[in-house]
Amino acid sequence: MSHQSSEVDAFVSRTKSWQGEIQALRSILLDCRLGEALKWGKPCFMFEGKNVAIIQPFKEHCSLMFFKGALIQDVYGLLRTQGENTQSAMRLEFTGKDQIKTAVVKAYVEQAIAVEQAGLEVDFKAKNELELPEELVRILNEDSKLAKAFQALTPGRRRGYVLHFTGAKQSKTRIARIERSIPKILAGVGINDR
User: Fold this and answer.
1) Rounded distance, CA 122 to CA 38, Å?
2) 172: exposed, middle or buried (C-beta count within 10 Å: 0-12, 13-18, 19+)?
3) Which of 5, 106, 119, 183 is deepest in the core (most CB within 10 A)?
4) Where along the chain do its domains lie?
């Protein structure tokens, strides 16, 4: 069993919901010799410093999310997507401690570790091939400084902006969202960065 983090201990002790599920999952992950730390405010488990999985307590369920879940074979048919725009992460969802079967969870964790050992990476081609909304294309064509700043953003940040802009149904709303985002784009930060 790996060393327990005092930060994760504190997280578990103050968690109101899913405490039994979190403790059960944590025990399995530590038994797989993964390191643990509190990242993004949640218990995160690493193999040789690389993020493998994170426990996520939600209102409806407690999940064990695998960062490179798309590279794991879903032999039990239990992996769920994080959302329609997610390309890599996949998760196991639990609504009760009795659903956590040690052998099943370990099988997924061992695959996730093997993915890291092999140095496999998720192919994010679709992320780099963004279809920009016409309003953004027009504004970028009119403002070379903004265009340069937008291209300097990381692919994930560009994608975040495009998803935010294209989430609007009306052109005037897309334009308003773009205009409100210009200062952040020029500052080199993402849509959700503070």
Assistant:
1) 24
2) exposed
3) 5
4) 6-122, 126-187
Lookup: tokens for 29: 């992950």
Beta bridge partners of 54: 44, 65
* Model pLDDT, residue 171: 93
Inter-residue contact 68 to 120 (CB < 8 Å): yes
Quick check: 36 and 45 in contact, CB under 8 A?
A: yes
Indicate the CATH number of 6-122 among 3.90.1150.200, 3.30.1360.200, 3.30.1490.110, 3.30.559.10.
3.90.1150.200
Amino acid at 172: K
Residue ranges of the chain whose pLDDT lies below 50: none
What's the pLDDT at 194? 73
0.85 exceeded by the pTM? Answer: no
For 115-134, write each residue's pLDDT tens digit.
999 988 887 665 557 788 99
Which among 57, 58, 65 is positioned nearest to 29, based on CA atoms?
65
Q: What is the DSSP string of 8-26?
A: HHHHHHH--SSHHHHHHHH
